[in-house]
Amino acid sequence: MNKQPVPLSVTVSELISWIFFPPLVATVFFVFLIFWYSADFNQGLRWIVAISPFLIFLPLLFFAVSYRLGWVSDIDFTDRRERPAFLFGFIASMAIAAAISYFLHVPLKFFVYLFSGMVLLIELAIISLYWKISLHTAVTTSVLTAVVVLGGVAFAPLFLLIPVVVWARVLLKKHTVAQAIGGAVLAFITTIIIFNIFGFYFLGTGL
Length: 207
Hints:
Layout: H1 8-19, H2 22-37, H3 41-69, H4 83-103, H5 108-128, H6 135-151, H7 161-171, H8 177-197
Helix pairs in contact: 1-7, 2-3, 2-6, 3-4, 4-5, 5-6, 5-8, 6-7, 6-8, 7-8
């Protein structure tokens, strides 16, 4: 029996989902900000060595162990009930990363980005107890909103990427339209509010 070919739309959606895989998007932007705000390469490297174990490596290790033990069934956390435990563990690691960045005297904008991400994760973990909100659209929107807040209006067209991610997650049946859009709306509002509290305003002065 011939195997049915995978529709192009599904292939494109899967590619988009991998490109905007939440840990990948957050890590790339984290590394970019490190070297953007550090005085030189050596300082940036010191910040990465101090912060990345808690922001990147420990969460990845926790996921690997959780997957091995059967606590999570797949990389997308398709089963909503598997999300909160991992997210709350990630929140603890992120809180340590934010504390370390504070004591390293990193620029306030960089610290606020970490703090806003932690607040968003807390919200996502709580909501995931009851509803399968999209992590893909939430993290992507959080990063893009931070880019626009820090970079200014010139980066606003990047928001056009959000409907693309929404489309991909809905087409793959990973989320409903409401869940995908809900993640984006929550992330946008949260990121804007946190940055505003610290005096960095949407479409403001830039990096």
